[in-house]
Amino acid sequence: MGRLGTGNLCGEIVVSLPREYVVFDTETTGMPPGARLVEIGAVKVRGHHIVDRFSRLIHPECPIPPVVIRIHGIDDQAVANAAKANEVVPEFLQWAGKAPLVGHNVQFDATMLACEAARYGLPLPDNPTYCTLLASRRLLKYKSHALQSLVAELGLPAAEHHRALADALHTWNLMQKLELLFGPQFHTASMGCGRELCSFAPEPIRLPEPREFLREAALAGEAITMTYRLAHGGVFQALVSPRFFYRSGAYLWMEALCHDRNFYKTYRIDRILAAQPGC
């Protein structure tokens, strides 16, 4: 078993959370910026009491990979009739209001919200965000700071894991435990600087000049017939409607509706050999 950390937090000023805040979690199809939300869960806390809960499944507009289904158990059938992120994300943000947002590895969840907002051109508020993973790493000397491990190590209430509302509740229980153990050391100073949610928005990317027509097609809502080279060298044509562009690793990517499959897929932009207005 690990041991509790001691000492101050490098001279940081200790600031308490406001009376009302939101603890939230997401489940996804993978890693941002290209991944999609499949669930948001949250609890609204006032003082030391949960006063409201939020839980919504989300249709990701694409198949959910089996590797992540094995983690959270949410499959295509479960989200078949769910609303899309362009409805659920604004609903969640309206429900949260101006309250600070707390998450375990909040950078991941905030980035997911921000990327979904960018995908649909939705505005993002400036709610401050705080991270219990950061607090755990600063205050506890455990080998693993995964939420599931901390629940076991600290004897927190047992429940399912890797579902959004359940993990939001685990995170809130973790907050209560850390506050009990460390008192004034545990508050926003140990959970980060309160980075604003809107700051997690993906950076706009500049497409190579020969590919700028892809953005124009996206802005106009037009379909294109694209000639695309696969990783193994094969070439095919597809009718697609571009929507979202992002950088991941060393490459630029385009998310587009594949009309043949009727769901959104991602394409590496440097593998698009040619394109013309769709038929």
Number of domains: 2
Strand content: 25-35%
SS-based class: alpha+beta
Q: What is the CATH topology classification name of the largest domain?
A: Nucleotidyltransferase, domain 5
Low-confidence stretches: 1-14
Strand order of the largest sheet: 4-3-2-5-6
Task: Enumerate how many helices there are, as a single number.
Answer: 7
Please give the number of β-strands: 12
The CATH architecture of the largest domain comes to: 2-Layer Sandwich
Helical percent range?
Answer: 25-40%
Keywords, separated by commas or semicolons:
single chain, 279 residues, alpha+beta, Nucleotidyltransferase, domain 5, SH3 type barrels, 2 domains, 5-stranded mixed sheet, 5-stranded antiparallel sheet, disordered N terminus
Notes on the protein architecture:
By secondary structure, the chain is α+β, with helices and mostly antiparallel strands. It has two domains: 3-200, Ribonuclease H-like superfamily/Ribonuclease H (Nucleotidyltransferase, domain 5); 209-277, SH3 type barrels. 28% of the residues lie in helices and 28% in strands. The chain is built from seven helices and twelve strands. It has helices at residues 66-72, 85-96, 106-120, 132-139, 147-153, 164-182, 212-220, and strands at residues 3-4, 20-28, 37-46, 49-57, 101-103, 129-131, 140-141, 224-229, 235-248, 251-258, 263-268, 272-277. Strands 4-3-2-5-6 form a five-stranded mixed β-sheet, with helices on both faces. The chain has a five-stranded antiparallel β-sheet with strand order 11-10-9-8-12. Helix 2 (85-96) crosses helix 3. The radius of gyration is 21 Å and the shape is elongated. It starts with a strand and ends with a strand. 35% of the residues are buried. Mean pLDDT is 91; it is low at 1-14.
